[in-house]
Each structure stands twice: as C-alpha cells, then as structure tokens.
Amino acid sequence: MDFEVNGYRMHYELYGDPSGEPLLWLHGWSGSGQDWKYIFKEPPSGFRLIGPDIRGNGASTGFEGTYTFSQSASDTFALLDHLGIPRIKAIGLSGGGITLLHMATQQPDRIEAMVVVSAPPYFPEQARAIQRQFSFDLLSEPEKTAMRERSKGGQKQIDWLMAQTRLMANTFDDVNFTPPLLGTITARTLIVFGNADSLYPVRLAFELRESIPRAALWIVPNGGHGPVFGSNAKPFTEIATEFLGGYWPPEN
Fold first, then answer.
1. In total, how many domains does the chain have?
2. 59: in domain
3. What is the pLDDT of residues 172-223, one digit of tens each?
4. Residue 109 belongs to a domain
5. CA quadruple 157, 54, 116, 210: dihedral positive or negative?
6. What is the DSSP string of 99-117?
7. Is residue 203 a contact partner of residue 178, using CB atoms and an 8 Å limit?
C-alpha cells in the first residue's frame, strides 16, 4: 500500500491478524519494512504488524534532499494518523530505533511501549569514521544484491542512501538525545544492545538506560550491531513479545 505524506510516497504493508493490537516495525537504515521477516517467522501473536518503508528507503520515494530521522518520525506519525491509530507499541532497529526515539520525545503520549535495538543517543566517533568512508563498493556481493532488491528506485536511490550515510558523519543536531530529552519519554522501553557492536559501544546502552525513566536493558553477549538475527532471533522474539505484552518488567 502507498500513502502520500510530506511530499513523497510512503510504501507500507500490514501483516497478521486484522483484529490484533497494532505494532509498528521500523527497519534499519537502507532496509525495508519487510525486514521483520528475518527475525519473526510470522507476525508476533496477538499483534497486527505495520511495516513502512521509511523515506527514501525500500519501495518508498523521497530519495532526494537531506534525510533526517526527526523528519522520519513526523512521517511515521502521519501514517499512524492515516490509519487512525492514536497510540501504539513499536520495535525500532538501528536507524528505525533512532526514529522511534524521536517519536517518543516528539509526542510521548503516543508511544505506549517500545523495543529499541542498537540505537544510540548520539553518533560516537567510531560510527562517524565508518560513515565518512561508507560506499556501495565496500559492501559484500550478497549485501549489494540485497540492497538492489530492496531499493526499488534503482541506482539513483542507492547513490542517495550512500551519500546520506556519509553526510551523517558531520551532522550533530538530528541524533542528539540528551539526558533531559530522554527523560521526557513515558513509554515502557526495552533497550537491546550487543556488547560487541562495531558502530556503537555498549556504554551508550547504559546511558540510555540511566536517562529513560521506565527502561529495561538487555545486553546480548557477543552480539554485534543489530544482535537480533540468526541464533538470537528466537530469544529476541520471546523477550520482545513478552515485554510488549506487559509481562515485565514489573512496575514499581
């Protein structure tokens, strides 16, 4: 399905039981809304999953100008308005997690609970060093093939995605979640981080945990960036659905 929003066409899909509780899935940068399938065998039980392709990604248009995660949050709220959803639970992976942090600070009352995976409060220098030199040529052949399949706008879209990644290395205002700002989040929050993330050191997870009022933290041993795939998919599925279902952590 497609939806015209803020000057571009957003593509999104709905998965699972139409009568299930809405659950927003926000994919990582340069991914697509269908990436949930690499973690969940099927939509989480009891939920109807909403999977948009964020601005400039996947089958959405908007791959022009300068991308910001803040604008992506506004786009996503517009989609929820379009679907008539005033308040939601959500999972955000990497860049999708950054978008989710923006949503939870822009309109706190609209995010009931969220699982934020490998999303930093700011870009540390080790991430910026990788962003500065990022290019399509540096990807492995399987990664190139996957990106070509996801990016429906072809090479123009891929070039834009690469250019925006490099621009992020010198941007400091879009991803800048200070402790006072994080303190405005009212959603129950599960922070998921790998302790071997090459982009974001695990100390950032503890900074998030200390600043978000109703937060729990899961550090995945030997987990890299986005430590919820492969052998970690099953435990993540179980823990995330339990958390979103309200089974833990107990309220004080």
1. 1
2. yes
3. 999 999 999 999 999 999 999 999 999 999 999 999 999 999 999 999 999 9
4. yes
5. positive
6. HHHHHHHHSGGGEEEEEEE
7. no
